[in-house]
Design brief:
Elements: H1 2-6, H2 10-26, H3 29-35, H4 58-84, H5 94-98, H6 100-105, H7 109-127, H8 139-169, H9 175-190, H10 192-198, H11 204-221, E1 225-228, E2 231-236, E3 239-242
Antiparallel strand pairs: 1-2, 2-3
Helix pairs in contact: 2-4, 2-8, 4-7, 7-8, 7-9, 8-11, 9-11
């Protein structure tokens, strides 16, 4: 981490960030735990590189945008682990993932939607990867893109599990939860075109995710609501659940 903050060389900085990414994915728990120290808990944010600039050459200047984005992406990845309770892209969390379906079935609706929202945030950050490569065939950039593909597939698997569970509970979502869900699904759909450009891959889990996203949006969009006394409410048989004034078109 000290090397990362002392260097002004974009190649060195990218290599440091790659090491951090590899630690997140395959490193021992003790190193991963050290990476998870945040300013909110008294730690120092070593990944705050928004001001990084290497103007030595046109190539290093272009690579600087990769350094800034990559640091922000890794920071997002680590912050999501605080929501999920584990690093979703880490092989060291395999024991947690083995019991995922059982764990997720016990989650509150609000927790499921919060998980989905956080994973969508990570996918959005993947889509923010700089468009222009520093130079054709750059090995560092290729390695980063390979790691991102693995992260993307892992994120898809996490989302599919949660969307499947939400689909089973759809009739019991409050109107407020439905709005939050639709907003997250819309954000995810907005990433679809960019992801198809970045990664020309066809996996059953990816196709399943996009199918579930559209299915859930259609189902939630067809919910019948009525307005009573200035507040929206959801009518399910004889049960009426008051929710905040809003509409599904707010997203």
């Amino acid at each position: 981490m000290d090397r990362l903050h002392r260097t002004g060389n974009s190649v060195v900085a990218l290599k440091c960030l790659l090491i951090i990414h590899h630690i997140i994915k395959r490193g021992p728990f003790i190193l991963q735990d050290q990476l998870s120290i945040y300013p909110a808990t008294g730690g120092y944010n070593y990944l705050k590189l928004s001001a990084f600039r290497d103007g030595a050459t046109a190539t290093t200047w272009a690579l600087s945008s990769w350094v800034r984005w990559y640091a922000r992406y890794l920071e997002t990845l680590l912050s999501i682990s605080r929501v999920l309770g584990y690093l979703p892209c880490s092989s060291s969390c395999s024991m947690v993932k083995e019991n995922q379906e059982h764990r997720i079935s016990s989650f509150l609706n609000l927790d499921l939607i919060k998980d989905i929202d956080s994973i969508v945030t990570l996918i959005e950050e993947i889509c923010n990867v700089p468009d222009s490569l520093a130079r054709e065939g750059d090995m560092l950039v290729k390695e980063i893109m390979g790691l991102l593909l693995n992260d993307y597939v892992s994120s898809v698997n996490e989302i599919v599990l949660r969307l499947g569970e939400i689909n089973e509970r759809l009739g019991w979502l409050s109107f407020g939860d439905s709005i939050e869900l639709v907003c997250a699904l819309k954000r995810l759909q907005d990433c679809q075109e960019r992801l198809s450009v970045l990664y020309l891959v066809s996996k059953p889990s990816i196709e399943m995710m996009w199918g579930l996203v559209q299915e859930l949006k259609d189902k939630v969009g067809s919910l019948k609501v009525y307005k009573e006394g200035g507040n929206f409410a959801e009518l399910e048989g004889k049960r009426v659940s008051p929710v905040r004034p809003a509409s599904l078109g707010d997203c």
